[in-house]
Amino acid sequence: MKKKLNNKNHANTGQLRSYGFILPGFAFMVVFMAYPLVYSLILSFMDYNFAFDKSPTFIGVQNIYKMFHDTLFLDSLRNTFVFTLAFFPSVMVISLIIALMLNYGVKGSPVFRTCIFLPVVVPMSLSGIIFQWILNSDFGLLNFILRN
Fold it and tell me: CA 134 to CA 23: how far, in whole Å?
């Protein structure tokens, strides 16, 4: 006689399995994103020269105070905001206009579709050709290395 599976245990097993699939991505994010972010935040309260100091010295918010009183930083911050506010909306509007033109079949739209899709197709095609040359049985580089 077969034992009937308990739905609660089966659900817990599926949940544990899903956490197992998420764990590598989460660990990658912690190691390469969260840790450097927190470490940079901690270092922003320190006086530390990586080349000459053996250990950092805590100075509080002096670095932040200096940063917001530096004209070069304020200029770069202003330029970043101006660029962001001018560039991204204009790119969105231009992209929407091009998409609508291609969708409504304006004269010459096949040419525009080809120009837009070409950067996607060319690298894949070239990599296929290069691998054919590398793996060629007569004069391929990999076969030459494997024979010698």
Answer: 37
DSSP symbol at 42: H
Rg of the chain taking only CA atoms, in angstroms: 28
Full DSSP string of 101-123: HHHTT-TTHHHHHHHHHHHHHHH
Q: How many CA atoms lie within 13 A of 16 on its CB side?
A: 6
The pTM of the full predicted model, rounded to 2 decimals, is 0.52
Backbone angles phi, psi at 55, to 5 degrees: -145, 150
User: Which tokens sit at 119?
Assistant: 């950067």
β partners of residue 57: 47
113-147: pLDDT as tens digits = 888 889 989 999 999 999 999 988 888 888 888 88
The answer to whether the Cα torsion of 17, 21, 22, 26 is positive or negative is positive
